[in-house]
UniProtKB/TrEMBL annotation, chain A:
It comes from Actinoplanes campanulatus. It holds the Pfam family PhaG_MnhG_YufB. The chain crosses the membrane at residues 6-27, 47-65, 71-93. One of its GO terms (molecular function) is sodium:proton antiporter activity. This is Multicomponent Na+:H+ antiporter subunit G. Belongs to the CPA3 antiporters (TC 2.A.63) subunit G family. Keywords: Membrane, Transmembrane, Transmembrane helix.
Automatic annotation (TrEMBL), chain B:
It is a multi-pass membrane protein. It comes from Actinoplanes campanulatus. This is Multicomponent Na+:H+ antiporter subunit E. Its main location: membrane. Keywords: Cell membrane, Membrane, Transmembrane, Transmembrane helix.
UniProtKB/TrEMBL annotation, chain C:
It is a multi-pass membrane protein. Keywords: Cell membrane, Membrane, Transmembrane, Transmembrane helix, Transport. It comes from Actinoplanes campanulatus. The chain crosses the membrane at residues 33-53, 60-81. Belongs to the CPA3 antiporters (TC 2.A.63) subunit F family. This is Multicomponent Na+:H+ antiporter subunit F.
Length: 116, 185, 104
């Protein structure tokens, strides 16, 4: 009885944490000033938020078949999310959607500037 | 010989995914997985990814623990900035040169760096092994230097987890040469 | 558990709403793509949270598909939004430059 209650509490904590990170991502998406900053906000629900909620789900459901599915969901997400982020970030930089006045230094511009 | 080893690693990885998909660890899923992965690799051959090193459990654990800690810290820092920050946060685009230039190391470092919130791969130079990273919420040169150290630490831990002896030697030499500051070497 | 479920649902719904605002406001295609990605992640979170609340695993295979294919759409669009997909990031330059040379 005690163990079940503790597990439920941990699962609830995980679910709330994931939901809170998603909420913060939504706020960041609205408030941050430029595209690349918003992409940083976007990483949270895609990585830690999702992992927390998947952990909570695994604890609540607790059968081997479903836990392996959840593990795979997490792994696939961790592999594919950076690919998409990199492609979008690269396109954003090359399309000139970076707000230069917010940048402290830009070593990529220096490298590209030297390009013949 | 190296090609055979790479293929074996790929078959093993695909078999693990197959067994996880079925959600049962029995002889049936094991042999079914082996059959399917051999078929898949025969029909859709992968580009050659050389896995030169070997798995080191201690290094892997060290990397995983540190990665999870970084993930938590960075996520909640960023969440705090989003919810309570008042000024428009500054950023920086940094060039980070890796000590080991293999494709696998480049890929894994890029994945690890961009999975942690607050840093994002904008571009990369495969031939020279340089990552161009957009770092969020940078206040000054101190933050820049700290971030360079962090990425070097990530590379060291990745190489320590999956690298070969030669790669570990390269990373250690580079770490000894870098000393305090500057990311160009 | 019902309290947790309600709070999580409110958080996720608010997040999805703000993401929708960003999708509508733009201003660029890439902003919308990033917001779409977040919306997808929130959807995955919501389906998983529902499964956790009801202890019912019916929806989990959907998550596999979403997590595998979610990136494909944004990669495709980013490819089109990139003005010069062929030019390198400065490969010849960084090889010649003195600051970046060395370290093997």
């Amino acid at each position: 009885m005690g163990v079940a209650a503790v597990l439920d509490a941990v699962a609830g904590f995980c679910l709330l944490g994931g939901a809170l990170l998603s909420l913060a991502a939504g706020v960041g998406l609205l408030r941050f000033p430029d595209l690349l900053s918003r992409m940083h906000a976007a990483t949270k629900p895609q990585v830690l938020g999702l992992l927390l909620i998947l952990t909570g789900t695994a604890i609540r459901i607790g059968t081997v078949v479903d836990i392996t599915t959840l593990v795979l969901v997490g792994v696939f997400q961790l592999i594919t999310a950076p690919v998409a982020a990199h492609m979008v970030g690269r396109a954003a930089y090359r399309a000139g959607l970076v707000r230069r006045e917010l940048l402290l230094t830009d070593e990529l511009a220096a490298a590209r500037g030297r390009e013949p | 010989m190296a090609g055979t080893r790479d293929r074996l690693v790929a078959v093993a990885a695909l078999t693990v995914v197959w067994m996880l998909l079925w959600g049962s660890f029995s002889w049936l899923t094991l042999f079914g997985g082996l059959l399917v992965s051999v078929l898949v690799l025969a029909v859709f051959p992968l580009p050659r990814v050389t896995f030169a090193g070997r798995l080191r459990p201690v290094g892997l654990l060290r990397f995983a623990v540190r990665f999870v800690v970084d993930l938590w810290v960075a996520s909640f820092q960023l969440a705090w900035t989003a919810l309570a920050g008042r000024r428009a946060p500054r950023s920086a685009v940094l060039a980070l040169r890796l000590a080991v230039r293999s494709d696998l190391n480049l890929t894994m470092c890029a994945e690890a760096v961009s999975l942690v919130p607050g840093s994002l791969i904008v571009d990369l130079d495969r031939a020279a092994g340089v990552l161009y990273v957009h770092v969020f919420d940078v206040a000054g040169p101190a933050d820049v230097a700290r971030f360079r150290r962090e990425v070097r630490g990530i590379e060291r831990r990745i190489i320590g987890a999956v690298g070969s002896d030669a790669e570990i030697a390269v990373v250690e030499i580079a770490a000894a040469q870098i000393g305090d500051e500057g990311g160009s070497r | 558990m019902i309290v947790v479920a309600v709070i999580a649902a409110v958080f996720l719904a608010a997040a999805a709403g703000m993401t929708l605002v960003r999708i509508v406001r733009g201003p660029s295609t890439l902003d919308r793509i990033v917001a779409m990605d977040v919306l997808l992640a929130i959807t995955v979170c919501a389906i998983a949270a529902e499964a956790a609340y009801s202890r019912d695993a019916t929806g989990l295979p959907i998550l596999l598909g979403l997590s595998l294919l979610g990136a494909v759409g944004s990669v495709a669009v980013a490819r089109f939004a990139d003005p010069a997909p062929r030019s390198g990031p400065g490969r010849p330059a960084s090889r010649k430059s003195g600051t970046a040379e060395g370290g093997s």
